[in-house]
Amino acid sequence: MVGSSALADDFEWHAFAYDRSTRVMTDLGTLGGTSSSALDVEGRYVIGDSTLADGNSRGFVHDLRTHRTHTIGTFDGSGSHVSGIDGGVVVVGSARTPGDQNTHAYAYDARTHVMTELGSPVGPDGTSTATGISEGRYVAGTWDHPGTPFEGGHAFVHDLRTRAWTDLSRYDNGVSSKVTSITGHTVVGTFQPKPDGSSDRPPERGFAYDIRSGVWSDLGPEMAYRPIVTGHTVLATTRPGACAYDLPTRTLSTFGPGPGRTYINGVAGKYAAGDTNPGLFAYVYRVDTGAFTLLPAIGGVHC
Predict the structure, then answer these.
(1) Could you point out which of 133, 201, 202, 207 has its C-alpha 20 to 30 Å from the C-alpha of 5?
(2) Local confidence pLDDT in tens for the 303 residues of the chain
(3) What angle do CA 64, 66, 68 make, to 5 degrees?
(4) Residue 182: what are its φ and ψ, rounded to 5°?
(5) pLDDT at position 199
(6) Whose CA is closest to 54, among 36, 78, 87?
(7) 91 touches 110 (CB < 8 A)
């Protein structure tokens, strides 16, 4: 498992890797700056971000087998950021272009250390960032036209094998959409519908997109807060509790302990984990059975 931990002397944060079999915790250090954080691990590779000596930030890949850390570069800009790893070798994220004018998505091969600029559907002047990758080939993220705020972007899928872009803006009707999660052939995120005359800004809604069939599904406003997908189920925080949307049957169910929010911090296979508010109680939710289990605190009231 990986994460970040505060140092005892100056409270700066360093990325770490913890081996559960040996119970050895390793400080992964920084790229010359004061802080770093580890985002994910797959096999022998840990990915994360670190500050440089000049204060800028770069993504990194740490090889647990060779104990070497490799810096992910930029496209002649000041910084880069990692967001996901899949296939054991391919890292994706965003990096700055010359003069920090734009941010472009990239794919980085941890074996060869080759970094590929993915650009955007509208060419090099557009802006893009990768949210995640699945099956070592499908990169999903958000892009935007030149000179417009990135927060108003559009979802995309890029196939690293065929180099084909799929621009999902045709489904959001030209307003905005963004990717929040990808697994297998399923991409999920949120989109902003066009005003319908009854209000200036309708509430955001969740969506799912099947890469193989090209089918876009509107998941409704209940799935609009950071939807995350595992298998054929999309999970999202709502009020009260949280929601689980089964894509094959198009059924929506809720889970959680009470009137507050049930936050989803991560998913793996059939399980989701997070915490609740109010209460700050950790939980585990089993997607296939609907079993919801609150976890006990370690000697305290909250966990």
Answers:
(1) 133
(2) 999 999 887 778 999 999 999 999 999 999 999 999 999 999 999 999 999 999 999 999 999 999 999 999 999 999 999 999 997 668 888 999 888 888 999 999 999 999 999 988 888 888 999 999 999 999 999 999 876 654 579 999 999 999 999 999 989 887 899 999 999 999 999 999 887 766 677 889 999 999 999 999 999 999 999 999 999 999 999 888 899 999 999 999 999 987 788 999 999 899 999 998 877 789 999 999 999 998 887 766 555
(3) 85
(4) -145, 140
(5) 64
(6) 78
(7) yes
- The answer to whether 292 and 260 are in contact (CB under 8 A) is no
Query: pTM of the prediction?
Result: 0.90
SS3 sequence of the chain: CEEEEECCCCCCEEEEEEECCCCEEEEEECCCCCCEEEEEEECCEEEEEEECCCCCEEEEEEECCCCEEEECCCCCCCCEEEEEEECCCEEEEEEECHHHCCEEEEEEECCCCEEEEEECCCCCCCEEEEEEEECCCEEEEEEECCCCCHHHCEEEEEECCCCEEEEHHHCCCCCEEEEEEEECCEEEEEEECCCCCCCCCCCCEEEEEECCCCCEEEEEHHHCCCCEEECCEEEEECCCEEEEEECCCCEEEEECCCCCEEEEEEEECCEEEEEEECCCCEEEEECCCCCEEECCCCCCCCC
Mention every residue, 6+ apart, whose C-beta is less than 8 A from residue 16: 2, 3, 4, 5, 25, 26, 27, 28, 38
- Please give the structure tokens belonging to residue 268: 């793996």
Alpha-carbon span 43 to 163, nearest angstrom: 26
208 within 8 A of 188, measured Cβ to Cβ: yes
Q: Which residues of 73-89 are buried (b: 16+ CB within 10 A; e: fewer)?
A: bbbebbbbbbbbbbbeb
